[in-house]
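WARN retry 2 of 3 for item q-0093 after timeout on previous attempt; input resubmitted unchanged.
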Amino acid sequence: MDNGGNVAGMSRLNLVIAVALASVLLSANATEAYAQGPDRCISDLTDAELGARLDWVERDLRRGVKRSRWWYFGWLSAFTALGTGELILGLTTDVDSRDDKAARDGYYFASAGAFFTAASMAAMPMTSAFAWKRLRKMPNGTRAEREARLVEGLRLLKKSAERQAFASGPLQHLSAVAYSSAAGIYLAVRYDNAFRTALAWLGIFTVKELQTLSVPKAQIHAWDDERYGSRPCMAPLLRPERGVEVSVAPSPGGLGLRLRF
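OK item q-0093 returned
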């Protein structure tokens, strides 16, 4: 009897272990599948679902294009002009006194920071400023072309969101604090000039913060939407665009008006 009980207990234990392992494997497979991104189910979509998802992506890429372009080209031009102007001021400043040297070095700090920021923007363009123009050129006739267009649209939307998140993220604030503080500390220690120290610190910090705080975020909000979530096959691909519904129904006092949003 004891042996039979032991065998039965071991069988139950083995069953529990097998179920647990199966659950872990299924969970791992599901996680791996979800990690493939929101384009993994495109081939399974019906034509209507494919069209709806493509319309959503195109709409989200069109949203805020003008603002993205103004932000990108505006700040790129501003930093280029600022760097050039500060460099000219630094080169043409007479250094007859310590205050003049402090002013010259302050110009050089501002020029170097502006040129570095402009070069960074040129090397990493704001994707949302160009994404819709790029996607619009892709063909949209056959099913295969629409699938390819949707895959590229999702890639561009995700990249746009990531670029906006980086441009408005904590690293930008940290770089503004670090560089302005370095300039201020250098001028304070070397020249003991409170005015030039405050001007360099506040000027560099303020301009960089204005750029960071003005970053457009339309694609960040779009990508965070549930239809681009980590489980796209489970998301409502054809979520209805429902407006206001008005209905009139009998009520104890006469007629009742009901609004549904």
